[in-house]
């Protein structure tokens, strides 16, 4: 069961971490309520690994993900990606960072409803340096047949796969997935996880998946347990399970 | 095409209803602007070109009779470029198949100098041959009214002699762009016209061979008109000169100029108001539309689109909508401007119309629209884009609703939950609610500005022809006549009642302010011509002193009790002083009045009259006309009913068009605003309402929540709108005070009702559209996706 004191991040045998977070805190003012989402998080992530952030809702994992992705800045602490300082509140620099390095997958897909699958992907490939074609990206997620459908014509699983194609089409170094299966049934969820694992495996993309579904932890290299704004503990799986072996 | 641009077109298609409504609002604003300014531009350019090409004179004078030898001395005056002498006489015509008396101004044409001042633009035929006393060119509008063409014949009374005349041509002259009978405010082309005859022939008819009684001068560049006028007056006074005057006081020019000034006022006022309203709406509506896309903006940013790219995207979207409106408005404005110009062409007799649209006009209209829309967009996008994407993608924290004042007053228990929702929602964003109210109110207000002119004109006519001028017929004599002519008139058939008047042309001066007009001497206690005070009660004529139209008092800067200088412009032109006894209310024209015997006394003359007002038995009117035609002293006859008809025709042609166009535009704007308010409210609250449906609320109930808000805001906007509209009407009326007419603000209940009805119908139609959409809310989707 969770220990109160978080162990130091696992660094020993790994190469230099791609992400380094130290003492991260984040405080939100939500309406009239003050929310402490992160209360001092230390974490390193290594290039190419698949990490699952596991924890109940409100435990701070989304906040951490948003900070890693340059969608938000911490209230205090340091966070670094390679040679980028992610604590700097510089919109232009953050935009550039997201554009060049990060792919996002959101729980509710966040597709642009007025664009087809292909166009949603093109939206990102058009502003990337060395992207795959939208067709390749969609083929990668198994949607070669549905490229010209609008979001409203696709099932949730298909929409999420478009979102993944959109996220990976730019060949990002980092793929950040916030509850990618949260809005999906188990069968569809597994299909989506398979795609994420495949991208991680085939493209070597450092992948962070947020979930509150403990089953999914089995497919990770490492599992970071979150609770109440802290990293509670970190586990390393001896072997990764294939997504198809998961069920809930 | 780039994906982002595709999104733009698809978004546009998706919101086409709203986009069209916004574009229509812009179109109306731009359309009004372009219509007015292109019309005004066309008329001004045409006026200038016409005056220049046809050598419209710059100084004019009328005199009794001067020898032709005076011309050389006039031409030699410093500043004078060219001096032309003429014979100008008012003549009576006997038109075949037209029983009423017709008056014409007969102007001589130089027999030897075809390219003189005030050149004729021949429409048909040729000029009269020198020395032919039977050949005339008639003015085109008069020719049209009587279907005269070269070869047509009619009779005229020239100097008491009946003479057969043959039309050899029809023409227009820059001197008579407005052909108004003296003393009349409206053109009557059937009963008054201008014609031209050779100088020698006309001179001989009036015993003015080798002499002249009218003068036109052109000036050298840089000459001082007043200096020339003073010198001319010195020369012509011994010959019965009635005072030279500059072009600005020339009748046709003065009227034309005032009309164009007034159009200019409208052209700056109306479009500014329409553009202002349109710009305001555009700003509000676009701002809210963009705010709705907060999440998409965050998503774009999450994928690395910078603020500039996102901003550009939305600016493009707005530019397309606004641009469509500007384009449509320009086309519409040019089309309407051409139509309006044609209407003015019917009224002003220009030989051609140079249509001119200054590119600046379009630039201004487009600029105002794009800036308004752009500002709304930039502010909204900035607000959305300056949020951290993580935050923008999260549902907004629950809004801080509070109990409203109405609830706090203890009325809460009478209000259902949905009613409380409506009130709290309005209350939560007071500024937004206020903007919606202001938008609808402005739309409601501009409807009044379009309609009020009709109401006002109806009222003015009622006062002028119903309460002040009540005669059936007015008769003017060729010269001042002995008072006993009154008894001759009373003996004529059909005549039931006669009141006589004396009319003396004067120049009134007070300090450095002066005005040319006429003093009317009228009989005390008269019933046919009444003077009214500010409350429209009959004013008793003072035994002494002079009464002025209130506006004339303002023009001269005088009040009751002030002394003014009266320079009489006939006879031996005495210079006298008079006391202003008071001011009278008149909406049309400006005049001065005295009691008849007081005026005779003032003029040091016996009982003398210039004309009479008659009340007649309409059944015997033809017989009366026959008799009047036979009296050489009668210079002209005007029928009040005809004046009213002429006025109404003029109004139908000009103002109705204007009223119609502006009302249609105002209605479109009103609908655009209300519809957009409703649609945006639906988008903003769709989720909440769908959730309520899930909870078991009926369609009717959620419809009530959404449309109830629209209804309350609309109802609140109506009184504000009527109030704003009245204010705008007062402003328009205030800026349209001219010598020609003053516009009182009169709004009849039907006008208010119409404005209210337009807003309510717009709201009802928008409500129906929104209601239909409410019926198709996707309940399941709401449960699955975040806000």
From TrEMBL, chain A:
In this chain the ABC transporter domain maps to 19-246
Keyword terms of this UniProt record: Antibiotic resistance, ATP-binding, Cell membrane, Membrane, Nucleotide-binding, Transmembrane, Transmembrane helix, Transport
The Gene Ontology biological process terms listed for this entry are:
response to antibiotic
Among Pfam families, the record links this protein to:
ABC_tran
Domain of life, per UniProt, equals: Bacteria
- Molecular function terms in GO for this entry? ATP binding; ATP hydrolysis activity; transmembrane transporter activity
Q: Please indicate if the UniProt record lists Lipoprotein as a keyword.
A: no
Q: Which GO terms describe its cellular component?
A: membrane protein complex; plasma membrane
The record's comment on protein family reads: Belongs to the ABC transporter superfamily. Macrolide exporter (TC 3.A.1.122) family.
Query: What is the name attached to this protein's record?
Result: Putative ABC transport system ATP-binding protein
Q: Which organism is it from?
A: Aromatoleum tolulyticum
TrEMBL record, chain B:
State any GO CC term: plasma membrane protein complex
Q: Which UniProt keywords apply?
A: Cell membrane, Membrane, Transmembrane, Transmembrane helix
Q: Name one Pfam family in it.
A: FtsX
Q: Which residues form the signal peptide?
A: none
Boundaries of each ABC3 transporter permease C-terminal domain copy?
A: 269-389, 662-774
Question: What parts of the sequence cross the membrane?
Answer: 20-43, 263-286, 317-345, 365-385, 434-452, 655-682, 702-725, 745-770
Q: Where would you say this protein principally sits, based on its record?
A: membrane
InterPro entries, per this entry?
ABC3_permease_C, Lipoprotein-release_system
Where is this protein localized, as stated in its record?
A: Cell membrane
Output the GO biological process annotations, alphabetical, semicolon-separated: lipoprotein localization to outer membrane
Does RNA-binding count among this protein's keywords?
no
Family assignment from sequence similarity:
Belongs to the ABC-4 integral membrane protein family. LolC/E subfamily.
Supply the name of the protein.
Putative ABC transport system permease protein
Species the sequence originates in: Aromatoleum tolulyticum
Q: What is the lineage of its organism?
A: Bacteria, Pseudomonadati, Pseudomonadota, Betaproteobacteria, Rhodocyclales
């Amino acid at each position: 069961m969770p220990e109160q004191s978080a162990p130091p991040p696992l660094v020993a045998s790994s190469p230099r971490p791609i992400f380094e977070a130290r003492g991260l805190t984040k405080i939100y003012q939500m309406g009239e309520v003050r929310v402490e989402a992160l209360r001092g998080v230390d974490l390193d992530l290594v290039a190419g690994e698949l990490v699952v952030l596991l924890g109940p809702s409100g435990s701070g994992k989304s906040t951490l993900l948003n900070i890693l992705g340059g969608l938000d800045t911490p209230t205090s602490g340091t966070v670094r990606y390679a040679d980028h300082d992610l604590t700097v509140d510089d919109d232009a620099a953050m935009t550039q960072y997201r554009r060049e390095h990060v792919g996002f997958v959101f729980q509710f897909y966040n597709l642009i409803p007025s664009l087809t699958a292909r166009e949603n992907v093109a939206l990102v490939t058009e502003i990337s340096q060395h992207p795959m074609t939208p067709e390749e990206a969609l083929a990668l997620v198994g949607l070669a047949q549905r490229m010209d459908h609008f979001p409203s014509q696709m099932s949730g699983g298909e929409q999420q796969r478009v979102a993944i194609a959109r996220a990976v089409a730019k060949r990002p170094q980092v793929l950040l997935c916030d509850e990618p299966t949260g809005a999906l049934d188990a069968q569809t969820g597994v299909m989506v996880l398979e795609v994420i694992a495949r991208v991680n495996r085939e493209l070597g993309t450092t992948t962070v998946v947020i979930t509150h579904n403990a089953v999914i932890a089995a497919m990770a290299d490492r599992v970071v347990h979150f609770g109440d704004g802290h990293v509670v503990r970190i586990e390393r799986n001896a072997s990764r399970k294939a997504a198809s072996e998961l069920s809930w | 095409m780039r994906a982002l641009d595709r999104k733009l077109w698809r978004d546009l298609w998706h919101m086409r209803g709203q986009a069209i409504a916004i574009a229509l609002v812009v179109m109306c604003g731009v359309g009004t602007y372009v219509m007015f300014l292109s019309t005004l531009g066309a008329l001004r350019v045409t006026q200038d070109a016409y005056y220049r090409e046809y050598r419209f004179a710059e100084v004019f004078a009328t005199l009794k009779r001067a020898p032709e030898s005076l011309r050389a001395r006039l031409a030699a005056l410093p500043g004078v470029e060219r001096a032309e002498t003429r014979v100008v006489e008012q003549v009576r015509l006997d038109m075949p198949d037209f029983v009423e008396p017709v008056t014409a101004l007969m102007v001589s044409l130089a027999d030897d100098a075809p390219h003189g001042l005030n050149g004729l633009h021949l429409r048909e035929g040729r000029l009269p041959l020198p020395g032919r006393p039977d050949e005339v060119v008639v003015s085109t509008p008069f020719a049209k009214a009587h279907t005269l063409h070269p070869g047509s014949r009619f009779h005229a009374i020239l100097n008491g002699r009946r003479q057969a005349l043959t039309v050899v041509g029809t023409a227009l002259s820059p001197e008579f762009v407005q052909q108004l009978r003296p003393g009349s405010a409206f053109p009557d082309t059937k009963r008054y016209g201008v014609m031209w005859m050779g100088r020698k022939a006309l001179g001989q008819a009036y015993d003015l061979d080798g002499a002249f009684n009218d003068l036109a001068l052109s000036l050298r560049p840089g000459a001082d008109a007043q200096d020339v006028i003073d010198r001319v007056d010195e020369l012509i006074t011994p010959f019965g000169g009635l005072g030279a005057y500059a072009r600005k006081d020339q009748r046709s020019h003065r009227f034309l100029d005032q009309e164009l000034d007034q159009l200019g006022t409208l052209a700056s006022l109306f479009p500014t108001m329409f553009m202002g309203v349109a710009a305001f709406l555009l700003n509000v509506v676009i701002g809210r539309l963009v705010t709705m896309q907060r999440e998409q903006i965050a998503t774009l940013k999450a994928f690395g689109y910078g603020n500039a790219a996102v901003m550009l995207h939305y600016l493009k979207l707005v530019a397309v909508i606004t641009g469509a409106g500007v384009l449509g408005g320009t086309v519409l404005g040019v089309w309407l401007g051409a139509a309006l110009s044609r209407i003015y062409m019917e009224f002003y007799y220009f030989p051609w119309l140079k249509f001119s649209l200054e590119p600046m006009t379009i630039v201004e209209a487009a600029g105002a629209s794009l800036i308004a829309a752009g500002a709304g967009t930039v502010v909204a996008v900035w607000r959305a884009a300056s949020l951290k994407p993580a935050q923008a993608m999260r549902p907004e924290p629950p809004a801080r609703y509070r109990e409203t004042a109405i609830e706090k007053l203890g009325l809460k228990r009478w209000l259902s939950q949905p009613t409380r929702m409506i009130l709290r929602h309005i209350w939560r964003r007071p500024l937004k609610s206020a903007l919606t109210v202001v938008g609808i109110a402005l739309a409601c207000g501009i409807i009044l500005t379009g309609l009020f002119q009709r109401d006002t004109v109806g009222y003015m006519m009622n006062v002028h022809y119903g309460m002040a001028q009540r005669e059936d017929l007015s008769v003017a004599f060729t010269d001042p006549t002995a008072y006993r002519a009154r008894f001759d008139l009373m003996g004529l058939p059909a005549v039931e009642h006669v009141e006589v008047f004396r009319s003396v042309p004067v120049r009134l001066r007070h300090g450095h302010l002066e005005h040319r007009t006429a003093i009317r001497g009228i009989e005390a206690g008269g019933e046919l011509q009444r003077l009214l005070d500010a409350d429209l009660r009959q004013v008793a004529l003072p035994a002494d002193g002079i009464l002025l139209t209130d506006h004339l008092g303002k023009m001269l800067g005088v009040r009751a009790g002030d002394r003014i200088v009266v320079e009489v412009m006939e006879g031996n032109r005495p210079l006298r002083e008079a006391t202003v006894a008071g001011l009278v209310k008149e909406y049309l024209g400006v005049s001065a009045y005295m009691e008849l015997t007081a005026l005779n006394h003032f003029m040091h003359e016996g009982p003398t009259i210039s004309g009479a007002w008659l009340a007649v038995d309409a059944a015997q009117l033809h017989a009366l006309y026959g008799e009047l035609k036979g009296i050489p002293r009668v210079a002209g006859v005007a029928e009040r009913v005809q004046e009213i008809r002429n006025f109404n025709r003029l109004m139908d042609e000009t103002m109705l068009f204007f009223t119609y166009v502006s009302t249609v535009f105002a209605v479109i704007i009103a609908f655009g605003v209300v519809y957009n308010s409703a649609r945006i409210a639906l988008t903003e609250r769709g989720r909440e309402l769908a959730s309520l449906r899930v909870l078991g609320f009926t369609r009717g109930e959620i419809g009530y929540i959404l449309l109830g808000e629209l209804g309350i805001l609309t109802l609140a906007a109506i009184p504000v709108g009527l109030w704003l509209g009245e204010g705008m009407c007062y402003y328009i009326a205030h800026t349209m005070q001219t010598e020609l007419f003053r516009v009182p603000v009169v709004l009849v209940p039907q006008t208010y009702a119409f404005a209210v009805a337009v807003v309510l119908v717009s709201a009802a139609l928008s409500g129906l559209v929104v209601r239909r959409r409410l019926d198709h809310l996707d309940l399941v989707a709401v449960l699955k996706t975040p806000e």
